[in-house]
Design brief:
The structure is a homodimer. In chain A, about 45% of the residues lie in helices and about 15% in strands. The first copy, chain A, is α/β, with parallel strands linked by helices and about 475 residues long. In chain A, the strands form four sheets. Chain A has a six-stranded parallel beta sheet, sandwiched between helices. In chain A, α2 packs across α12 (about 305-325), α5 crosses α15 and α15 packs antiparallel against α16. Chain A is globular and about 60 Å long. The interface of A and B includes residues 260, 263, 425 and 438 of A.
Chain lengths: ~475, ~475
């Protein structure tokens, strides 16, 4: 007997993500009869999503109903689950801030990321607080970034059950592909903080697979790191929602940089982890090419990041075209295989006791030793009707804790303290602390320009004291 | 009835420090009959110290006996107290390392300080371990730097009772002098970590004295910060063991930099604290002059630091001259007032229950909230026969914890982890983490040259793995 639930999906205008949720729902028998409320501030995109969702479900004969709203309260009313994938800072704004950084002498980097964090975590907190009064028993599945800061803030400030999700941990599959083993036969664990996770266990058919990584490095590393990856053909099985360029730009799982981190720490950084790891990998495009591969230098350069934003736009256009072509078969266009997203399987586990193990971001409470209980960590969890139960994982090596985890934790705490207090000097300190900053005056100028940017008016007004420095 | 004890003084070749101890001992009736074992690797200096000590005690009619030894075990045998003021890294070596940094593109700074920390904490640990077998019940008073790292390591690794001491907290008196109040009428508290303490309480005649600081800043700040302090006469009451140049160079208690920190944090940094505080105060000599005053830019510049070393040499020469002049009155030369050192009063408190309050560095155990129990903090303590009892102080503001205390704590933990493991990559990471480092290659070159320096042979051999980065 299936369990009909209501899912409120915030930020549903992202058609690709929304359709992924719909697809997984259609293919999950235990959730038949459920309804999904798509919420976004863009009604046009919502209409596209609803039309696509309804047609897809109809083609499959799935019993689901869909509604759209631009009103958040209507979306979460009576919801059993709220999935929040929205960002109040657009990709264009992120690009604009990176370009502002360039104007102030920084290479295309993260120097202005407090803007992104502050505006999004305030938004997340608004959602969680709204849930406290509208649907206090619902689960919040947080899909939009910054997961680490946002989930920590929401679980500290509200009583809502929050689970943050990310794709990064699938990086272990890319590692498997690189070293030529089938990831279906792999057992793994990669705990840490979101975007900062480390492969503590990596077993292939029950045997330690790290020696295979070492063999790959010894036999193929230098050759691979010397390649222009743009010249490599993309295997057909990897063709998908990203362009081949992007896929290749993102192949940093065994880049020279990732392997350097592995050599420093004895464990591989997984997924989004090697994208940061140390300022020295990121000083300029040539340095990034050295550590992350030619020609793009990884996914965070002035060349590759615009490709990502363009690709998103192309995907939106493709979805709009599908929606406007009533003769197109959506089953043909979208396929009938479950996605790799964890959201619906987790819901199925919680609702129907269809137990599974997932990589989640939840308050620590002892799962990862050395961090306070009220910090959200990324760990494996068993999910069933009892709830989301993090596994007490093997502690990370002290060196990783001291050089990677704790600094990241402190950075998060400073961002949350700034968010709570409106203390402009913390924002200044964060820019000063950014390794690429060369002088006090540079940091002051960067901060003032950042807060004067279009879209940051409220943030600028909020961050007042102390400002007599 | 006085309590005759034995004090072992390691690093006793530092005549000024040793004579200060002797002076305080002579002037402490409750410790009459005690003996002091001066230990150093330099027998010549030891002889000078013993001659001066004996003559001074004789002139005062104090009942004390003195012996010298170059053997550490003989020094601590039967000791009730061991005072360790030695550094195995000479001032000249510290200067050489700073100059090595300059060669690698750093302004005269702390980039190679792991050398100083590693070699000295290993030495301290040797002393503490020796005490465990020779005089396990004795107190160790740690006067040599690095107090924070060394005391934390010793209290973690041995069962010896350790109390670290520093002069920095007396900075509150300089602040009083600057704003024109009598420090004898001041109540204060400045907890934190050694060289990282913050004036949480500052009462003058029972009233908050911070408004007086604010008045000084408003009325006199800009004028003072614009002065060439070399042109200021030194008041006669400040003439002392340092040259007037050094005294002025060290007057940074209400420098523009210290006041900037006060504006950022709402509390004044005390003593050695404003000497660090943020990399941006230290990028070059002009920047340091801006924040710490003209012409020297504080006590850590390529101009003022050599003055300090020269002054030490002059003091040694002066002591040698005194020792070699049997007609000189030592009472006249050294005075008959107790010094401001805390060592002997603390011993008097512990031995004779002559209770007092002191600024000590001891394992936290809840004294300063937010730090683990096994981290040595600098706090006020009541000292009497019961022991050294840290006061549970007011917690520091979250911003100070997140921007000043925790980063310093992590830095200490990394240094101790490096010391424990011999992991060269942690030393590399520390140089990379040093804000002035501009590239990976620069850090590697700096580290290799540092470890190849004369005097670091053992350190170079010790730090082996992992080194395949």
């Amino acid at each position: 007997m299936p369990s009909a639930i209501k899912i409120g999906l915030i930020g549903a205008g992202s058609a690709v993500f929304s359709l992924a949720m719909v697809k997984d729902l259609c293919l999950t028998e235990g959730l038949a009869g459920s309804r999904v409320a798509f919420m976004d501030i863009n009604q046009e995109r919502l209409d596209i999503v609803r039309r696509l969702a309804s047609r897809y479900a109809k083609e499959l004969g799935a019993d689901l109903s869909f509604e759209t709203t631009t009103d958040r309260v209507a979306c979460i009313q009576d919801a059993d689950f709220v999935i929040n994938t929205a960002s109040v800072v657009s990709h264009e704004q992120v690009l604009a801030t990176r370009r502002l950084g360039e104007k102030h002498g920084y290479y295309f980097g993260r120097v202005g990321s407090d803007e992104y964090v502050f505006r999004n975590v305030r938004f997340m907190l608004d959602v969680a607080r709204e849930m406290e009064s509208v649907c206090p028993d619902a689960w919040l599945i947080q899909a939009g970034n910054p997961v680490f800061q946002g989930c920590t803030l929401m679980t500290r400030e509200t009583g809502i059950k929050v689970c943050g999700l990310c794709h990064g941990h699938y990086g272990y599959r890319e590692i498997c592909d690189m070293i030529g083993i089938d990831w279906h036969s792999v057992t793994w664990q990669a705990p840490g903080l979101n975007h900062n996770i480390w492969l503590t266990h990596f077993l292939y058919d029950g045997e330690d697979a790290y020696p295979l990584v070492d063999e790959w490095i010894a036999a193929k590393g230098e050759e691979y790191w010397g390649l222009d990856v743009a010249t490599l053909p993309l295997p057909p099985e990897r063709e998908g929602r990203w362009t081949p360029e992007l896929q290749r730009a993102w192949d940093i799982d065994l880049s020279r940089g990732a392997v350097h981190m592995y050599r420093m720490y004895g464990l591989l950084p997984v997924g989004d982890t090697p994208r940061s790891g140390g300022w020295w990998y990121h000083t300029d495009i040539d340095t990034k090419r050295y550590w992350y591969g030619k020609p793009w230098g990884g996914q965070d350069t002035h060349i590759s990041r615009p490709l990502y934003v363009e690709n998103l736009e192309r995907r939106i256009a493709r979805m709009a075209k599908l929606a406007n072509d009533p003769r197109a078969s959506l089953v043909e266009a979208l396929g009938t295989e479950k996605t790799t997203e964890q959201h619906i399987p987790i819901i199925d586990g919680l609702v129907n006791d269809n137990e599974g193990q997932f990589q989640v971001n939840v308050p620590n409470r002892g799962a990862l030793e050395g961090l306070p209980d009220d910090v959200v960590v990324e760990v494996s969890a068993v999910v069933n009707r009892k709830g989301i139960q993090p596994i007490h994982v093997t502690p990370l090596p002290p060196k990783i804790m001291l050089e990677q985890i704790y600094p990241d934790w402190l950075s998060m705490e400073r961002q949350l303290l700034a968010t709570k207090t409106g203390d402009r000097s913390i924002l200044l300190w964060n820019i000063l602390d950014y390794h690429m900053t060369r002088s006090y005056d540079q940091a002051v100028a960067m901060l003032e320009d950042l807060l004067a940017q279009e879209g940051n008016e409220e943030m600028n007004a909020y961050f007042e004291g102390p400002s007599n420095w």
